[in-house]
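Summary for the steering committee. The consortium agreed at its last meeting that each partner would contribute one worked example illustrating the joint modelling workflow. Our contribution is presented below. We chose a case with several input lines so that the handling of multiple components could be demonstrated. No manual editing was applied between input and output; the record is shown as generated.
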Amino acid sequence: MDITRRQLLKYSAAIAAASAIGLELPLPDKVDAAHVEKWVKTVCRYCGAGCGVYAGVDKGRVVAVKGDKDNWNKGFLCIKGYYLPPILYSADRAKYPMLNKGGKFVRISWKEAMDLMTEKFADSIKKHGVHSVAFYGSGQAYSEESYFMNKLFKGGLGTNNIDGNPRLCMASAAVGYVSTFGKDEPMGAYDDIYHSECFFIIGSNMAECHPVIFRIINERKQKDKNVKIIMADPRKTLSARIADMHMSFIPGTDLAILNAMAHVIVKENLYSKEYVNHHLVFKTVKGDKPAKVSFEEYVKFLDEYTPEMAEKVSKCPKDDIIKAARWFAQSRATMSFWTMGLNQRTRGVWANNLVHNLHLLTGQINRPGATSFSLTGQPNACGGVRDTGLLSHLLPYGRLVANEGHREEMEKFWGISKGKIHPKPGPTAVDIFRSFNKGDIKALWVACTNPGQSLPNLAPYRKGMEAKDTFLVVSDTYHPTRTTELADLVLPAALWAEKDGTYGQSERRYQYLEKAVQPPAEARPDLDVMLEFAHKLFSKLDRTDEVKKLFNFKTSEDVWNEMRLASKNTAYDFMGMTRARMKKAHGIQWPCPTEDHPGTVRRYTAKYGDVLVKKFDPAASDVSFYGAKADGNRAAIWLRPYKGPVEPADAEYPFVLTTGRQIEHWHTGTMTLKVPELKRSAPNAYVEINPRDAQNLGIKSRDKVKLTSRRGSIILEAKVMDVPRDGLVFVPMHYPDKLINQLTIDAYDAMSKQPEFKICAVKIEKA
Amino acid sequence: MKRFPMKICLIVFSLILITTSAVIAKEKKHIKTSEDQECSECHGAQMQVWQDGKHGLMNVKCIVCHGSTDKNFTPKPDIYKCRGCHEEKVADVKKNLSKGIKTCFICHDHHSLTTKFHAKGGK
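What follows is the complete predicted structure of the assembly.
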């Protein structure tokens, strides 16, 4: 059979087209598109390092990403930041409000959702009082959102039933800073890395959890052979690759080591007499109350903490402890970093105090390269929760609920009646969920966090969230998550790049995130929803006349401007950070009191640029811990005795379980597990066990292993690696199908209320 | 109108099909792997070189340059893969495209990242 030329051409085109359709074309979730219409300045969605990022937009989608070369990260990103764009386009984005009808989620309109939600909250308030409702927020929400909700609950409703997930990660660091220095937040900056000669890194796997900061430290070491790095961790992680000394110890015994280092410093006369005489007070606790003691009493307290004693308790060689103390004290400038290894402990505040002690005792502080630097886990735990005062014991910008003067300041500022702010701090994270379980809290709104996976001793809290006699609303960008699946009502939220607002990262750098693209379908920015909630709720409570005064905000910039005013004349003062300035800047570090102020790299030192020294302590020539007015602007060295974890290993449960992160994933994996590349690189949970323990138990890599604690058990595949010390196993926290928090313990630090995620006792057997 | 015998048409159609496939599928697919298979099981030598280099130390893992074995697999990344962290260097390369420098890997070894050509101090 012959065909005509016209037919030949027609059939040829069809074949070419058909073969193109049949083949896999470039996917829409690209990160490296060649063509980008515009680059939008923003910040990474993930860790508290807070890398500057540009989102590349083409035809209404984010198709590329690049690091901000003019920000502190100098254009570098880690693999998670590199793969940001696909998180926006996952098939399980929450797109519509969903109502749980007998276990089935049914789409409803926003009007129905908000009417129902405000009805439930208003009813509960009318029948059971204002303390029957609560809000659980997040260190991933924008600062404007957290400030707004804090004002709504504490100022508008008059309840302190508002807390956030930084209670699970940063509370001990926050209370540590406040108890030592009078005010929260690090006084140093990443810039100190470039000047430091000794890094003391404890309880932090920086290489995987804060990789871009790790990069700068490595770069510093490559440039200067005098630099010493001490890595103190019961696991010999990837971070230890650049260490000059790895200090290994039994988990939870580090308080003995830190006191022993102080012991060496004092005995060998390596302490700073200038600091001891002019900048410090010494404190202990006598009968539940803080009491001042002398330097001599501190020295006597340290007598028992010999390197030998610390070695006996911790199994860290005494020579390592002595060497670490000498390196710390004698280097030209020493910088400490720590994160969850110290914070997620029942003695987390004490551990923080003891690191600060070393810096204060040696004078390794308040000058370039010398500082004690707490690394933050979430992108906005600092700016959004600690600083705005969302935690249940706080008010904005360094003020406390329990302080009558602070309450009056905020009542005046917010234009509410005297006595409106409840004088008693509210329940903290774990206790909010305990109260929800009991039914004392009847209506709970959870936003931008995943407690159905992240709470310790998870099982009873999941049961409580599922109960039918209480009302749970969850705002999230995805559905289902391990929390939205338990909700009565799910509200779809806009994600990174889909709304504008502010993040504040570890080094006091506030950064503006510009909106780059529209959220999908009916997903909305949380602030929009919060504003509508406030207006509708107050209308149902017959308080419509107050709403215009209290919540007169149309945009997130309106909220930001009120926040600036709330910070004015405090230690946080960021009046100078107008929105216009923030849009141009690559972040600005507070304090920044005026529009022409460049921001403050180092606090508490007039010589190195903190203008608030002169304001709050005019008599000081240079160093002033002006947050500690009651102690004469002096920082406190605390006498903290050694106390181990609440549940160490024992005969019945002979291993310690610790949890943490891998570089591919972030927190509960709701975003990173959506990215095919990150998921392929780290697809599943596992238990990391060292070769000696594995051999004793007859376990090989890939064997199925059962881990059991007093609270639950789990089956995981083993990975035999010479990383954890003997008697320790590690499980990553990211995987929704392997809820490791069913095993962890919800005992918490008495001062910070932060749970001891890092240490509980387990037994192991082949499954 | 000119008419073509079917035999000739079939040859022409096959050539079109092969050519179109070759043009569009410029990147090969990775062989099928199971979820728990790690790159090091088959690519041990490259992984060791990578591990000893800067990308290895900084955990810039295989997926950054090569995508996933299942999706977006890229055996030979182009310069836009490097732009995420190295924007200025990529811009430099783009300026020199006419000189035949099309990718970073003309000068940099793929896995160790060491430069092949110039002596110490060269640009």
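Chain A touches chain B through 56 residues (CB under 8 Å). Chain A has four domains: 5-89, 98-168+380-543, 171-374, 655-766.
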